[in-house]
Design goal:
alpha+beta, 267 residues, 20% strand
Length: 267
């Protein structure tokens, strides 16, 4: 055993009872009913330690920590630690004094959970020892173990399931609007399309055309187009009569305009 190995603590139980057991006459297993369970021979603290591959069950005084007895365990389950047939809280351990003398004593726990922790602590340690031994053998002979073949055999295929992916189809068959559109729906059939009003202060093209002043036709222009061909004497007399005729009809037109304006005001 290497001197650099350190000692680790696997389990500590504050109370354990020690019993002096009768020698076993036959090959049958121990029974806790044969002990004097109500009169333990010693009561103290139990501590399980590990150093290398070995585990040690140490019985110590609960106040001073002085060692009462020690049981080296090289395998579990084994002859160093045995369970009784009639209870899960009692065990038989083999103690040694370091001079080659050995003896078997019985130990028992008041709580069943303490007995479970005692049992599991030893199992975990020797499970770790077994794993370390197997790893050491594989490191010495790396080619001795079975090789892991991850290649495909002849005709072997695999199937990949990437969830339930369903394609959503457009039931109407209409193309989706582009990202640049404003997303406005067309008006329903028969609806009146609203028109945009011009901003205040602006003049529309229709108003500008309607309010454009129209120049009245002068008598000279109209006379040139529609006047009949008359002799010079009659033409001069008709022109003089036509010019004064405009002034003669002026009062009647002015009175009609005044009447119309009065009617608008009254309305």
């Amino acid at each position: 055993m290497a001197e650099s190995e350190y000692e680790s603590v696997l389990c500590v139980k504050p109370e354990v009872h020690v019993y002096r057991i009768p020698p076993r006459a036959t090959n049958r297993r121990y029974r806790a009913a044969d002990w004097k369970l109500d009169q333990p021979d010693w009561t103290g603290r139990l501590r399980i330690t590990a150093k290398g591959n070995m585990a040690y069950i140490k019985l110590e005084d609960r106040n001073s920590g002085e060692l009462f007895a020690q049981s080296p365990v090289d395998e579990f389950p084994g002859i160093a630690v045995e369970s009784v047939v009639d209870s899960s809280r009692y065990f038989v351990i083999r103690i040694e004094d370091g001079n080659g003398r050995r003896a078997f004593i019985g130990i028992g726990f008041v709580d069943r959970g303490d007995a479970f922790d005692f049992n599991v602590g030893l199992q975990d340690h020797f499970k770790w020892v077994k794993q370390q031994t197997e790893l050491a053998k594989q490191a010495e002979n790396p080619d001795s173990g079975p090789k892991l073949d991850l290649g495909f055999k002849d005709g072997q295929t695999i199937k990949l399931n990437i969830g339930n992916v369903k394609k959503k189809e457009n039931a109407s068959g209409k193309p989706r609007p582009s990202a640049g559109s404003m997303g406005l729906l067309p008006p329903p059939p028969g609806a009146k399309v609203p028109t945009l009003l011009p901003p205040p202060g602006s003049v529309s093209v229709q108003d500008s055309v309607m309010h454009q002043p129209v120049k009245p036709a002068t008598p000279e222009i109209l006379g040139d187009l529609f006047a009949p061909d008359l002799p010079p004497a009659q033409a001069s007399h008709a022109a003089a009569t036509d010019l004064w005729g405009d002034f003669a009809t002026a009062p009647s037109s002015a009175s009609s305009q005044v009447t119309q304006s009065a009617n608008w005001v009254q309305f």
